[in-house]
Amino acid sequence: MNANGMFLPLALGAILLSVGCGEAEQSPARTNECVDLHGRPADVSQEPNYDAEWVHRWSYEDGCHVRKDVIMTREGDGSCGDGQASEIVLGAKEDKRMRDIKIYQRDPDNIYNDTQVSEAFDASVQLPDAAVDTGYQQGDRRLWLVPDVPEFIYVQLSDAIERWPLDPTPPGCA
């Protein structure tokens, strides 16, 4: 307790947690909502340093940020696909944080010279009946998965649903 009667560890914890949810300046109540709603820490200040301009964050539909060591998109100038191909990188489970990463490719023009992966991408599909909305979003993108079928992810856009294939041998450039 400090001279003002405040518990410093509690105040510091509220400040750190607020970094991960929606707006940068959120109240502790809103921050606790983010943590309690998703049942996981929202403290993005504890994630590894991903400061490249081509690494992009996802969020939950309520605005809480998802840590980049759980899910991120790599795309744009300077990325492995140099703006012509995209990757969504997923950890196996949020509590394991990237121990079993999976890289899904959007490479319709075969920039990575992997015909099998390039041809498995489909820019217009129907969602499988078993698809589950992950709650992850990025701009107009929403991510869908089919449980126990890791070969593809489904990215819902405002006007289409794309099927992105898992790349079992992703390019070693990133």
Q: What general outline do the C-alpha atoms trace?
A: globular
Assign the structural class, choosing from mainly alpha, mainly beta, alpha/beta, alpha+beta, or little secondary structure. Answer: alpha+beta
Number of strands: 9
* Helix proportion: 10-25%
* Mean residue pLDDT: 74
Q: Whole-Å distance between the termini?
A: 46 Å
The main sheet orders its strands as: 2-6-7-8-9
Question: How much of the polypeptide forms β-strand, as a percent range?
Answer: 15-25%
Using the CA coordinates, give the radius of gyration.
Answer: 18 Å
What characterizes the major β-sheet?
A: 5 strands, antiparallel
Q: How would you describe the overall organization of this protein?
A:
This protein has helices spanning 8-17, 28-38, 115-120; strands at 55-57, 59-60, 71-74, 86-90, 102-106, 132-138, 141-145, 152-156, 161-165. It is an alpha+beta fold. The protein folds into two domains: 1-46, no CATH class; 47-165, no CATH class. The strands form two sheets. A five-stranded antiparallel β-sheet has the order 2-6-7-8-9. Strands 1-3-4-5 form a four-stranded antiparallel β-sheet, with no helix packed on it. The chain is globular and about 40 Å long. Mean pLDDT is 74; it is low at 1-32 and 92-98.
Keywords:
3 helices, 24% strand, 2 domains, globular, 4-stranded antiparallel β-sheet, 174 residues, 5-stranded antiparallel β-sheet, disordered N terminus, alpha+beta
